[in-house]
Amino acid sequence: MRRTPLVGGLIAGLALTLVACGSSSTTKTTTTTGTLAGRGPITFATGKDLSGNMQHQVDVWNAAHPSEKVTITELPADADGQRQQMIQNATTKSDAYTILNLDVVWTSEFAAHQWLAQLPQSQFDLSGFLKPTISTGQYRGKLYAIPSASDGGLLYYRKDLMDKAGITTPPATWAEMFADCDKLKKLPEAATAGCYAGQLDKYEGLTVNASEAINGAGGVVVDDSGKPNVNTPAAKAGLDVLVQAVQKGYIPKAALTYKEEDGRLAFQAGKLLFHRQWPYQYSLANKTDGSSKVAGKFAVAPLPGLSGPGASTLGGHDLAISAFAKNKATAADFIKYFTGEATQRANLIATSQAPTIASLYDDPALVKQFPYLTALKASILNAKSRPLVVQYGDVTAAIQEAAYAAIAGTKTTDQALTDLQTKLSALIK
Ligand code: GLC
Known about the structure:
Strand order of the largest sheet: 4-3-5-13-8
CATH topology of the largest domain: D-Maltodextrin-Binding Protein, domain 2
Bound molecules: alpha-D-glucopyranose
Mean pLDDT: 92
Largest sheet: 5 strands, mixed
Radius of gyration: 22 Å
């Protein structure tokens, strides 16, 4: 047997567990929590909530903290748009955003520019958090952000059609996946479906997907010491998988405009056989309210690689406090509530998003409900970081530029990665 299936099935009847709040409500007078002072209403600047549960989590807090209410300020759905708006806010020293829901790759940049309040380590117990998530909130050994959600890429696949075609295990390599597609496409139900999509539009999602293709072939964008090393045969072989897949039609042309939600809608409409996506899709695609045609029909597996299983890029979000905000003591308490075990457990049950607290991955009741948790934990523990650099904006733009040129066919893979190496070497000293 070439591979082991991870999970099939459907999440049925998810009970929403209400959580108790971590701190009591307080008066309007300024109190100090370490260096984080001030209590009162605050805002929570966050990318558009794709999971649909965030307002509920905030409502639970607000009901218990009438004088320290949190208002969500919704930023764009895509990471680049969020980053731009947060930076605009920070460079004008505006106090409009109190808590920032940072993508895990932005902490260095935001901390180095002194846009974040440093968090006292003694106030935040991170001992139960997954190790790789903890360092995403640190810069030069100091704490700036608390991991609230992790993310690891998963291969969603149409288990119903695989069963029908007599394929008993999900693909571990790209070649196996394309071969499976050839077989599946012979089924009348799959004749018009695309084989594969991920996040291939020119934005942060492409940095994630291109890095995964490169890492899955044994290449790197930057090496362990942080030095760019992307002009290599392994990196080229990795990116070339995507390039060839577009050329051969395994990746539909439309997928070159897909961000997370475009791909999710295509998968849910039955238009994709395989889809690289984050865990949040698991609950939404299993909804039986008519929004998904594939509820109960799919399963998830680890990402494919070139000659064996691939590796995910580490995703996720951390909560930080804007250096320019008022009511930082309230913000600190809200962060403790939002990242605490009870809130993360309830959020996992409601949304299938990846928690940052390790024990939730080993909880038998949760593993029963979300059988992929064990594999997801392994995927997060083995995930590769994107370059953790102060000039992250320029670095990701260069990666996106090169990867998009290659998959859209305006540059050869070879030229694209040669140029990328030159650019990254100038950016990362
Ligand atoms: C998800 C990940 C984040 C990543 C983004 C890319 O939101 O959690 O880390 O940058 O997708 O689109």
